[in-house]
Specification:
By secondary structure, the chain is mostly beta strands. It folds into 2 domains: about 110 residues, Immunoglobulin-like (Sandwich), CATH 2.60.40; about 240 residues, Jelly Rolls. It has 1 helix and 27 strands. The strands form 4 sheets. Strands 10, 12, 13, 14, 15, 18, 23, 24, 25 and 27 form a 10-stranded mixed β-sheet that branches. The longest helix is centred in the N-terminal third of the chain and has 17 residues. The radius of gyration is 30 Å and the shape is elongated. Bound molecules: calcium ion (3 copies). One calcium ion (CA) binds next to β27.
């Protein structure tokens, strides 16, 4: 008797606490709400609907409500998807699964796998166990988006004749000019001497051709023990250069940790190993300073006595990523000049090396590469967008008459 009456009292209290007073219903525990991550292809026309699933942990006798909003990641509201702010999702009693439909902009432009978040808040008659869904819009396109805007180099120069050029109008690398240099530099030169983070490949994912341009793509992906991939090409053994004018028209990538370069190494190490036989850097850009190009020479008696002379210039407006610029070298015996869009910004003469041997009156070969990370630029950060593209319109090499 006594036990029974205590039980009745407990039931009475729990009923009055519930407040609904709907006598006879079995009370259910408040459900937990969770939202499920989603990764789908973008689609190629108009819009694509991404169904983001929201679940209750158990049926509820009560109506459950929760609010939801979108939060930008690399995917941007308006460009990549239609933003949603504080909309309400309502579960009828006993309903456990609902879908939030997000509208995705389906285009034909190659992008990264861009992400955004759908976030739950303000639950009614429930608690939230997983508030955020990471939604990934997977790239399904092959053509990158750029315009040809920018400076065009003259096609003749007094005192010079075109020796060779690559206009990159084909769909594969011209093997009579270029070779790929793949890998991470290991074992002999791991990280390419600079603790760089990329693995170079000749896969079409890292080097391809579009609209008369060579494109080197750096991407964030696990590959052969590295976290990034990219590409590097060189003319060693195929096209060697000694004196003349070199014009390279390109649109550079951007972002912390991004490091594109057009440079030259000695074809024959006539004065010994790096840097005794020299290195000539036509263009280097470190992504945290996207409006500045550097022109540099390296020299010295050896690794322990390495020297460099480096000069730079900046754009008058915008960055080197905004449009195509022409990076040029004018190279004579005992003198090298660097130009950006035809404007001289640095001159080196034999006298600048003082007592050191001047190794720049010999044959050099060309190198194009897009590095990620390394001692100079530092590592990419959370804001660095991948993929990044180094887009080269042409290289033209003129010899002195
Ligand atoms: Ca698409
Ligand atoms: Ca796209
Ligand atoms: Ca071209």
């Amino acid at each position: 008797m006594k036990i029974l009456s205590v039980l009745s009292l407990v039931l009475l209290i729990s009923c009055s606490k519930g407040g609904s007073g709907g006598g006879g219903e079995t009370p259910t525990p408040a459900p937990q709400i969770s939202i499920t991550d989603l990764s789908l292809f973008e689609g190629n026309g108009g819009t694509t609907t991404f169904p983001v699933e929201v679940k209750l942990s158990n049926k509820s006798s009560k109506e459950v409500k929760v609010q939801y909003s979108t939060i930008e990641g690399f995917a941007k509201a308006g460009e990549d998807y239609t933003a949603v702010t504080n909309q309400t999702l309502t579960f009828a009693p006993n309903e456990t699964t609902k879908t939030i439909n997000i509208t995705i902009v389906a285009d034909l432009i190659k992008e990264g796998d861009d992400d955004f978040t759908v976030q739950l808040s303000a639950p009614v008659n429930a608690t939230i166990s997983k508030a955020d869904a990471k939604v990934i819009i997977r790239n399904d396109d092959t053509k990158i988006s750029f315009t040809n805007t920018g400076y065009e180099a003259p096609t003749t120069y007094p005192g010079y004749t075109l020796d060779w050029a690559d206009e990159f109008n084909n769909t594969s690398l011209d093997a009579s000019i270029w070779s790929n240099q793949n890998g991470d530099g290991c074992p002999g030169n791991c990280g390419w001497g600079n603790n760089e983070l990329q693995y170079y490949t000749n896969r079409p994912q890292n080097i391809f051709f579009q609209d008369g341009k060579l494109v080197i793509e750096a991407n964030k992906e696990s590959f052969s023990g590295k976290s990034y991939t990219s590409s590097k090409i060189l003319t060693s053994g195929k096209k060697k250069i000694k004196y003349g004018r070199i014009d390279i028209r390109a649109k550079l990538p951007t972002g912390q940790g991004i490091w594109p370069a057009f440079w030259m190494m000695p074809q024959d190490d006539v004065y010994g190993g790096w840097p005794a036989s020299g290195e000539i850097d036509i263009m280097e850009m470190v992504g945290h300073e996207p409006n500045r190009t550097h022109g540099t020479v390296h020299y010295g008696t050896g690794w322990n006595d390495r020297k460099n002379i480096s000069k730079s210039t900046t754009t008058s407006t915008g960055t080197l990523h905004d449009k195509f610029y022409v990076y040029s070298l004018e190279w004579k015996e005992n003198e090298i000049k660097w130009f950006l869009d035809g404007n001289l910004f640095a001159t080196l003469t034999k006298a600048d090396l003082g007592a050191y041997n001047y190794p720049f009156n010999e044959y050099f070969y060309l190198i194009f590469n897009l590095a990620v990370g390394g001692n100079w630029p530092g590592s990419p950060n959370a804001a660095t967008y991948f993929p990044q593209w180094l887009i080269v319109d042409y290289v033209r090499v003129y010899k002195p008459n």
